[in-house]
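Newbie here. two chains, one complex. Structure please?
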Amino acid sequence: MNAEIIGIGSELLLGQIANTNAQFLSRQMSYLGIDVYWHTAVGDNKTRILEALRIASERSDIIITTGGLGPTMDDLSKETVAEFLGLEMVIHTPSLKSIEDYFRSMGRVMTENNVKQAVFPKEAIILPNDNGTAPGAILEKDRKIYIILPGPPAELEPMFCKYVIPYLEGRTGCRIYSKVLRIFGIGESAVEEMVKDLLLNQSNPTIAPLAGSGEVTLRLTAKADSEQTALELIRPVQEEIEKRLGNAVYGYDDDRMENIVLDLLKNKGLHLALAESCTGGYVSNLLTNVPGASEVFLEGCVTYSNNSKKSRLMVSQETLKNYGAVSAHTAIEMAEGIRKTSGADIGASVTGIAGPGGATAQKPVGLVYMAIAGPNGTKVMEYRLTGNRQRIKSGTAMRLLNCLRLYLLEQ
Amino acid sequence: MNAEIIGIGSELLLGQIANTNAQFLSRQMSYLGIDVYWHTAVGDNKTRILEALRIASERSDIIITTGGLGPTMDDLSKETVAEFLGLEMVIHTPSLKSIEDYFRSMGRVMTENNVKQAVFPKEAIILPNDNGTAPGAILEKDRKIYIILPGPPAELEPMFCKYVIPYLEGRTGCRIYSKVLRIFGIGESAVEEMVKDLLLNQSNPTIAPLAGSGEVTLRLTAKADSEQTALELIRPVQEEIEKRLGNAVYGYDDDRMENIVLDLLKNKGLHLALAESCTGGYVSNLLTNVPGASEVFLEGCVTYSNNSKKSRLMVSQETLKNYGAVSAHTAIEMAEGIRKTSGADIGASVTGIAGPGGATAQKPVGLVYMAIAGPNGTKVMEYRLTGNRQRIKSGTAMRLLNCLRLYLLEQ
């Protein structure tokens, strides 16, 4: 089976938004083992929507439309699909009741045009909208499947996961279960090399590598008739991969490095303080994005100037003079200084040259030192990163968090 | 004239990337006054690329392809357009030389398959690639225009702006010139209300409001036969808008709030230090994203715990006990404390409840206090923000930068 995604909405063609729904749906379909061969985007124009449906129905088995389900005159998706398939539109009473309830719960009056959102082509399977007023629908006609979804991603994504995936699994006759392994500190080609034989012999589960944002992920996807069976298929492959990659596997599925570090601190009852120079607050910002970070994160010092390194962190004038602000010695004194002055169990520091200015012959842009001071002594690390200022900052931040993770695993 | 954008690349259909090129090009075309009626995306598959070209050539005047210009076997765009139009492929010598120079400057050896990137359909107008190895091309045939662009946005966007816009302006017979006014502190509907008469009577320049990321922009676009004339058309409208919106207009075109604040500090010869609580380093991170921030930004303290507010910023135990960490009193002491302990001319502080936890009946999630201490005294502001933790952090950061901007304008 193959699929085509038709995005409906003039805001796409004006460039006001990117078609992220097509990306989300394509990725989900690939997990389901269904090939997507075409994306199309068309405005809120009946003639062109009909043309898009005609072309899609001639070349694709599954046609997914997104957008155009709202209450206004502009919203034409359902009506046009019904016209294209020669189906009558009827009121779907449970949907009408849901929409009325939704308005009541918001303390707002439902206007007449909202009734439109409860009108569907006859014979449609209705997809409830748990996050808005416009339900979706599935229609089967002439061996083609039409899936009609709302435009806002916050409505489309949960609707697809909760209602459309089980439907498609029912059609393809098998259940799909995925587990993502998140890997940091080894590049994509090295990861592929390390699991090459598994990649070559993959069948069920399949193994899909993906690189992005400085990390590599491996998605293991099993097809089975129950979740239990799928998990049993995934487990030995996952264990084999983890045996080979060791603690470069830092998390699973939606895990983020900052959550892992905070969880380790909580589990071990340790408090952290940070001294950042070249990252300029990036690491503190990542950690404090996580609700409850304040339980274990005491404070951070963004010591950009030499004076602040001395006054806040007790870095010595001699060290700065003899080795410079970007040096292993300074990183060590910064980590030990933030630990001492904050009273935290763990002090972590980073100093480097984010560029584009500030480099010397000995110290190029991208040279970074980081240190971690704890009850059992201090570790220091040197890295050489490439890219522009932002990439060096974010790459450095991820490396510091990863160093903290590895350090905490040993405590 | 109307246009269609064909994205070529299997990574689009696998959902590995969103089709942001279609968004960028659609927005640019709308500025040029050219309607985009269709987006299509298709994989690296010759049969389907040919089908996409056939369909597009039947319904669109301008067909823009993106992607598929690389050196590998997968990259099929130019060859397939040439086949579709019945044109011969020939080596373009200046492009071959540029590619050779590019490899030489990178200290790498050019492999044989890179020659492919210098081969073009006969009669093509070649578009130099100033940011990579794959040039683009324009072809005119049977009163249709085919524009072939590379996939990476960092190559496509400058190529489009530098070479394609002047070409299209030549075809449409007029020059387009835009100026964006960036507005902070007034909502979209209030801005529209304040310039309603100008919006209703717009013709040349046109005025397009757009809201996003907590700010509002107004894009003034003039059509004229010279840049000078366009500027003269824009100037009186811009002046009228600025008269009405006052210093809510914080910048122009690609300006960012953090750059404006840093420039003001530099121009006035002032140094800044920050004390952040609820924003957790977000503001420091924004400022240090700008090269050269270190000239005026001395340091930041992310004082998450009460202890750190006392030890780093000299906030008094009495203030914390009587008014709480989230209070105007604490914000004032934080700003004055960071100013004193850092030696900066300006100390700025922020404390608030980013949520989802930490709220009380008196202090809801989103309550934020910020203060600015300088040579002429201390100002304090209270805000109530809505949204999730990230939105509250980023909204607070923008407000603090805007307060700093307004404070510095008065110095």
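Moderator note: Chain B has 15 helices and 17 strands. The first helix of chain B runs from residue 10 to 13. Thread marked as resolved.
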